[in-house]
Specification:
Blueprint lengths: L3 H33 L15 H8 L2 H23 L3 H15 L4 E5 L3 E5 L5 E10 L4 E9 L7 H7 L3 E3 L2 E7 L3 H17 L1
Antiparallel strand pairs: 1-2, 2-3, 3-4, 4-6, 5-6
Length: 197
């Protein structure tokens, strides 16, 4: 069952994407007008281009380089916009779950790129990164968890008992929004066991 906050976040994210795509279409239209309405500024000044050199002058011109640069900046801006920020209702949901499971003594900081850095009272911690829409599983709000480095000899056994994998002496896992409560509690328990040994 999907939480109402996540439903709001999903529709907010889809609306944001539509707005940004509309702005990109307007931006490309304005950019084409700005770069090509005032005339072509050729890289090589030829007095009277004829035939295919006239077409080449349009393609290889300062106008085309300016247009390509503007287009690249728009695409990078779109990519940053869609990848850097988590919709507010999803942030409230995630922080609520983390704060509810880990308590007030845990330090939870949200960073750019939809990441939550969690530091537990014993010094251990983990990073929770949210994928808004996973194309492979068609899952909305999928979380990737990576713990701090654990120096215990039985790390693989610890990971298997708590439902996580091991990579570079860190516990790792992928968690759906429905499992976030239970898997966060399991991860906190595994990290406290690892710090005790």
């Amino acid at each position: 069952m999907e939480d109402s906050l996540l439903k709001q976040a999903k529709s907010l994210y889809q609306d944001r994407i539509r707005i940004v795509l509309s702005l990109l279409i307007i931006g490309v239209t304005v950019t084409v007008y700005v770069f090509y309405s005032s005339g072509i500024v050729a890289l090589i000044q030829d007095s009277t281009p004829q035939g295919w050199t006239a077409g080449l002058e349009v393609v290889v011109s300062y106008n085309t380089f300016g247009f390509a640069l503007a287009l690249i900046l728009m695409v990078l801006g779109y990519r940053f916009w869609t990848q850097a920020f988590l919709p507010s209702p999803a942030t409230v949901y995630t922080l609520g779950v983390l704060r509810g499971i880990l308590g007030p003594r845990a330090s939870i900081k949200m960073t750019l790129g939809r990441r939550f850095r969690v530091t537990l009272p014993d010094g251990s911690g983990f990073v929770l990164r949210c994928t808004i829409h996973d194309r492979g599983s068609n899952e909305w709000f999928l979380y990737h968890v990576v713990s701090t480095e654990i120096n215990t000899p039985d790390i693989r056994s610890l990971a298997l008992r708590h439902g996580f994998g091991v990579e570079n002496r860190r516990l790792i896992g992928t968690v759906s929004h429905e499992e976030l409560h239970a898997r966060t509690a399991l991860l906190a328990k595994a990290l406290s066991l690892a710090s005790e040994s």
